[in-house]
Amino acid sequence: MKLNLPKLFVDKMKLLLGEEYERFLASYNEERFYGLRINELKINAATWLEQTDMKPYLQQIPWCANAFYYTDDVRPAKHPHYHAGLYYIQEPSAMVPVELLDVKPGHRVLDLCAAPGGKSTQIASKLQGEGILITNDIATERTKPLAKNIELAGVRNAVVLNEHPANIAQKFGEWFDRILIDAPCSGEGMFRKSPSMVEEWESYSVERCSTMQREILDEVAQMLAPGGRMVYSTCTFSPEENEEQIARFIARHPDFSVVPIEPRWGWASGNPQWVSSEAGAELSKEQLLSIARTVRLWPHRTKGEGHFVAVLMRQGQPSDRPQSVEPTQLSIDWSGITMQDHKTYDKVKGKAKPKGKPVKVKGAKVEELDCESIWQQFQLENVQLTGNGQLRAVMFGSRVYLQPEELPSLEGLKVIRAGWLIGEMKRNKFAPFHPLAMALRPREAARVLSLSADDEQLLRYLRGETIFVEEQQLQFNASVKKNGYVLICVDQFPVGFGKYLDGMIKNELPAGWRMM
Ligand SMILES: C[S@@+](CC[C@H](N)C(=O)[O-])C[C@H]1O[C@@H](n2cnc3c(N)ncnc32)[C@H](O)[C@@H]1O
Question: Which of 149, 218, 256, 458 could bridge 117 with an S-S bond, Cβ 3.0-4.6 Å?
Answer without folding.
Answer: 149
